Amino acid sequence: MTASAGVSLPRRTVFETSEAELLGQYLRDAYGSNLRTSVVKAEACRHVRTDAGDFAVDEMRLPASFSYSAELPDIIIAESRGGELERRLGQESDRVVAGDVLIFTQPGLDYRGECHGFDARTTTLTTATLALVAGEPVRFTDYRPLSQATAQLWKRTVDYLSQDLLDVPEAAAQPLLRDNAARLLAATALSVFPNNVMHDTRCETAADHPAAASALLRRARAFIDDNAHRDIGLSDIAAAVHVTPRALQYAFRRHLDTTPTAYLRRVRLNHAHAALKAATPASGETVTTVAARWGFLNPGRFAAVYRLAYGRSPSHTLKSW
């Protein structure tokens, strides 16, 4: 999915056809040359892909009959809206019906099945992004969400990023926002689907020692303070202080009652506050540009968080020249 140099992101592709051969070729182009398809018929098929580099969101309506098989390098998570689809991933078989949310593919496992019409939204995530967020290679241990509530969480997260990032050119053009969106999708996937990282009950006891925890947190906060302007996440912070992401999460929760990423957001909010206070009429700064520079995707949510922290709106601070 990652675009080559000189290609602007996100990139949107709209494909429509009623020809079986063209549909098969397009699916191979979109999902990888090792996807094998046998399309029997296709009628008024439509596929819209928005490629943001480290993730892609596809909206598809495929009133077609075809079989498929592949071993794909990325994770694809599907939200079914209609149609009939039989899927086999490794040794597990599923009948996918409207309303289902499930992991369609996992690297290293053969993926195959038959489709008799399929209306869905899929999100593709790279394994590199998942590993970056988790701090270690990720393997999903079940392909269905932990609960109906977590399935809804996944849908709302993709809705949010589609509407407030991918469909807003000014926001989608910001690399920091796209990178944060990829991390958010990866973190949500890790929370929604059982996996070897988030649902491992092993405890990191080193962070329990008061002196060790104090030194660890001091170094972690210093790294965040010095690098908040960069595209950093949990794994970067953990690497900088030489502990596992799990140990870092544990230390922040136990001793600061927060998380490393929440602390990072607060630091970025402080920087945005300082930028708004320092702005002048000649600078041309707006609340939206300041928010985007510091990784806040939605101006409305930024305003709500800002008001909660500072007791006034960001626009009020900006106009207090």
TrEMBL record:
Keyword DNA-binding applies: yes
Keyword rRNA-binding in record: no
Superkingdom in the source lineage: Bacteria
Keywords: DNA-binding, Transcription, Transcription regulation
A GO molecular-function annotation: DNA-binding transcription factor activity
Domain HTH araC/xylS-type: 218-320
Stored SUPFAM superfamilies: Homeodomain-like
Pfam families in UniProt: HTH_18 (PF12833)
Annotated protein name in UniProt: HTH araC/xylS-type domain-containing protein
Species of the source: Streptomyces tsukubensis
Organism classification: Bacteria, Bacillati, Actinomycetota, Actinomycetes, Kitasatosporales
